[in-house]
């Protein structure tokens, strides 16, 4: 083959790929979004749902490197999802009263506290602000929740804020699922999200690095590639008869004995982080409250459309993960710290579908959770 023929072939292939990509974009625009969650009661018939879910999904690509905590959402502007340069989700706060001291309340958590799948004014933090400021506008809520954060990352974030002179009067933490699932993926308790990917970037082969980079770039800019990735995942799910994880999971192969050992390590890590937070609060003069969140991983059953999650949420079909989560939850329940509260049961009596995956809930669910948090803050601490 001559050089001219090679160039012609390459150009032809590139033109074909461009044509396919443009065709896919036109087609997806015509038929509308593919997201199965739009059929759920949480989003069905709500005109803002399509844009909201897309913005929430895009947050994955708006995370930037953040010293010590590894990543943070920064400066995202949208219709319904907004965050500032510090990574704080835009939160509903009333004009503060000029007659008294403003009480600064920082909230921490993963994507559930950040408010994935919820508009700015209807996150847990925003709902909490509405309740706390009902009688007097003096509580200013700053939402430092971040996608995929776990408890120890959040405490580290608080330490960094204090170091920079930003000390809260109250710090509220809302966690549980990430502490278990991230440890399960990595096969060890002392880990952070995407740890295996980060390790491959630092210690993997050139092929590992190239493959990860190429997949990330294609997943961001190539609509046809996204569909191809979904097709491959769906095909694997159909062959195996169950939903599959999108990446390798170390803990999936663990025996019952190793899962028990991992559960002990996770609960111990959580407890020591809680002990550190307690010492930190005494040393720097702020108060804190920690909440263990509700989740379908507890296996207490589905309501309405939630049953469909068994087929589309890979985590819900992983019996080893469900077993690990229940083991960890049982151990966490033994924590004696007076500032720790297990509110995992607050959605048990729901009459309608609230969850849209294993842990994320509708805006109606956020309101129920925030009311449970506020009740404890009000009755136990007088807030």
Structure commentary:
It is a single chain. This protein is of the alpha/beta class and 383 residues long. The chain has helices spanning 3-31, 49-58, 111-114, 124-132, 151-163, 177-186, 195-203, 206-221, 223-240, 256-284, 309-312, 319-332, 363-381, and strands at residues 63-66, 70-73, 103-109, 139-143, 170-175, 287-292, 340-342. The protein has two domains: 1-32; 39-381, 3-Layer(aba) Sandwich (Rossmann fold). The protein has 13 helices and seven strands. The strands form two sheets. A five-stranded parallel sheet has the order 4-3-5-6-7, sandwiched between helices. A hairpin with a 3-residue loop joins strand 1 (63-66) and strand 2. The N and C termini lie far apart (78 Å).
In short:
The chain has helices at 3-31, 49-58, 111-114, 124-132, 151-163, 177-186, 195-203, 206-221, 223-240, 256-284, 309-312, 319-332, 363-381, and strands spanning 63-66, 70-73, 103-109, 139-143, 170-175, 287-292, 340-342. By secondary structure, the chain is an alpha/beta fold.
């Amino acid at each position: 083959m001559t050089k001219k023929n090679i160039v012609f072939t390459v150009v032809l292939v590139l033109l074909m790929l461009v044509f396919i990509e443009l065709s896919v974009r036109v087609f997806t625009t015509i038929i509308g979004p593919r997201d199965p969650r739009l059929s759920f009661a949480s989003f069905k018939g709500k005109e803002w749902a399509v844009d909201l879910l897309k913005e929430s999904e895009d947050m994955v690509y708006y995370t930037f490197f953040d010293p010590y905590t590894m990543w943070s959402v920064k400066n995202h502007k949208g219709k319904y999802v907004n965050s500032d340069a510090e990574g704080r989700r835009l939160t509903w706060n009333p004009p503060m009263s000029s007659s008294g001291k403003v009480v600064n309340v920082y909230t921490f958590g993963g994507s559930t506290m950040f408010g994935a799948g919820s508009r700015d004014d209807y996150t847990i933090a925003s709902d909490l602000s509405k309740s706390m400021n009902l009688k007097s506008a003096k509580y200013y809520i700053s939402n430092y929740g971040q996608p995929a954060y776990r408890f120890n990352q959040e405490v580290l974030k608080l330490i960094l804020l204090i170091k920079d002179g930003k000390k809260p009067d109250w710090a509220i933490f809302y966690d549980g699922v990430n502490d278990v699932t991230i440890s399960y993926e990595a096969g060890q308790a002392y880990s952070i999200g995407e740890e295996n990917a980060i390790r491959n970037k630092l210690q993997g082969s050139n092929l590992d690095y190239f493959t990860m980079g190429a997949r990330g770039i294609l997943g961001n800019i190539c609509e046809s590639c996204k569909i191809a990735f979904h097709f491959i995942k769906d095909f694997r799910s159909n062959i195996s008869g169950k939903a599959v994880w999108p990446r390798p999971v170390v803990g999936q192969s663990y025996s019952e004995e190793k899962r028990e050992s991992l559960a002990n390590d996770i609960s111990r890590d959580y407890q020591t982080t809680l002990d550190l937070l307690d010492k930190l609060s005494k040393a720097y003069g702020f108060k804190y409250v920690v909440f263990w969140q509700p989740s379908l991983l507890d296996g207490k059953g589905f309501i309405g459309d939630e049953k469909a999650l068994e087929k589309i949420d890979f985590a819900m079909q992983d019996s080893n993960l469900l077993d690990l989560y229940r083991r960890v939850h049982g151990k966490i329940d033994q924590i004696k710290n007076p500032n720790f509260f297990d509110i995992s049961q607050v959605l048990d009596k729901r009459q309608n579908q609230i969850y849209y995956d294993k842990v994320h809930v509708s805006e109606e669910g956020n309101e129920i959770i925030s009311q449970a948090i506020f009740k404890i803050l009000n009755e136990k601490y007088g807030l």
